[in-house]
Amino acid sequence: MSVVIARNLTKKYGDFTAVDHINFEIEKGEIYGFLGPNGAGKTTTIKMLTGLTPITEGDAEIAGISINKNPREAKKKIGWISSEVIVDDELSAWENIEIQAKLLGVKDWKDRALDLLNYFGIKEFKDRKAGKFSTGMRKKLEVTMALLHSPEVIFMDEPTIGLDVNTRASLWNLIREVNRDYSVTILLTTHYMEEADALSNRISIINKGKIIATGTPDELKEKYGGDVIELEIKKDEIPIDKLDQIGKTIKKDGKITIRVSNAESVLLDVINTVGSNNIKSLKINKSSLDTVFLNLTGGSLEDNQEFNAKRFYAMLRRATR
Ligand SMILES: Nc1ncnc2c1ncn2[C@@H]1O[C@H](COP(=O)(O)OP(=O)(O)OP(=O)(O)O)[C@@H](O)[C@H]1O
Ligand SMILES: [Mg+2]
Question: Domain named ABC transporter: which ranges (predicted)?
Fold first, then answer.
């Protein structure tokens, strides 16, 4: 069963098309990654799915409910988490949750909130000011708030941006656990290849408003990636032609790189062709999402511009009023 279905979903700002007729389906229980550079249209897509910005063309369904036809009902099925936001430092965790419950119109929220706080191990800190929380605790509070109304799907717009390596790793675990223990479907956007790879069951790569590839991380690597064998040789005269039949071969400064679909399966062939006593060093670089992205877009990821969380939250308040 699909929890999110987007059909020709399109957003135009004047003449500019930020999201261009995209189609995707997210299955129940999936962690789905949206991977793309700055300005690709990731946040705009999430804003259309959460009803924060009008859809220009096309539609999307959340748990079978059309956003165009029934935005209020669709919104009830959604929780969202962004990079910093939603937590008010001056209020206690509990007060923050209470505000969230009011914003979402959830009535019997207290037991659910206590269960969630207990699950995340922060129940004993519920009366502490959120401003005194560590980053990790804060994330747990944000997830508690997003899960309060038992949504079918949660959207996470760049959830780990600005986190140190350890906090990021524990947030990855948290995302996996929440997905498993609360059977909640997750759509996350990220700039980090390894994040999409580590967390997502499936990924859509989005660039300039268009989805240019969709698949499991392995499928994408298989299709658009490619391993690279790097060789350093002792003598200069080697049969480049023969190597080129194995995979695209480039020779530069005594270093040879061969791009192949699976390095292990051709390794012996390569060694025999070059001659084992002619090899100074040999290295295999396995295909990664980085290679996939580069192959697909021909460009690299630029530095991310900070997501404007405050503005997003202000918009949510307006939208839920
Ligand atoms: N309110 C707006 N008015 C005009 N253009 C907009 C508006 N919001 C976004 N855009 C443009 O739409 C495009 C997509 O922006 P969006 O924020 O969805 O990208 P993104 O993939 O989330 O990028 P990032 O990784 O930087 O967060 C960008 O070119 C952006 O400048
Ligand atoms: Mg964005």
Answer: 4-233
